[in-house]
Amino acid sequence: MRRASLRRVRTSLAAVASVALLPAVAVATAAGPAQAGVNDQAVSGVASPIWQPNGVVDAVAAGNGLIYAGGNFTSVKPPTGGSGSATARTYLAAMSGSTGNLATSFNVTLNGRIYALDLSPDKSILYIGGAFTTVNGTARNHIAAVNATTGALVTAFNSGANRAVRAIDSTSSTVYIGGDFTTVKNKTQAYMASVTAATGALNTAFAPTFLQRPAQTCPTNPPPGCTTTTYTPNVLAIKVSPDGSRVL
User: What is the value of pTM for the model shown?
Assistant: First the structure.
């Protein structure tokens, strides 16, 4: 009887597990086929040759037949066996999505690391965020917009933050940014902000606030080496919902 009972319990658990999984599968199916299968060739998982930076890549974006890579590097070079030689690219480069070769027509000169990249919905503008303070020799503090084909600075977009921008997502009218900053365009707005896509002006109506995590303090009789740890909020990722009603 006991074995029969165990079999019935196991069967019941399996049935419950199967039912619990069905809604998730249904939702995934309802979302439609993967975009790669709709708009691009099948993905094989086999590594493709692409030019390599001499440092860390922190952000990637794709569009216009190009792959944009930003990070902490100062040059890129052909993959092993490829033709060409190392070419200067300061913290941002673009490669062909089909061949992996350096897109020589796209060139941006920066003086600091890139942490975030985002293409505008029409793919004409590449928004860049990071630790830089100049773009192509022009002052731009931590956030800027460049032409997605040439890398020329979009001068009409003139925003700015007092510290690094680490996340960007955009709509046709608005650019959302997140990072370590506490002011945007010299106005107080900490860690997350919204600016207009046309000019970079701060949208003051969008004003989220963040609570600081309590410091980790030492007990009354601390062990040797105990130190107080404080935590400062920052935003490392941003995504606008498909209907544009929420920012995650």
Answer: 0.78
Q: Which two tokens stand for residue 215?
A: 């410091």
Cα separation, 128 vs 170, whole angstroms: 11
Separation of alpha carbons 210 and 201, rounded Å: 22
- Dihedral sign from CA coordinates of 51, 56, 62, 68: negative
- Enclosing H/E stretch for 14: helix 2-30
Residue type, 92: L
State what percent of residues in the chain have pLDDT above 70.
82
| Calpha distance 247→78 (Å, rounded) | 38
32-36, 46-50, 108-112: segment of lowest average pLDDT: 32-36
- Whether the predicted pLDDT of 75 surpasses 50: yes
93, with CB counted inside 10 A (0-12, 13-18, 19+), is buried
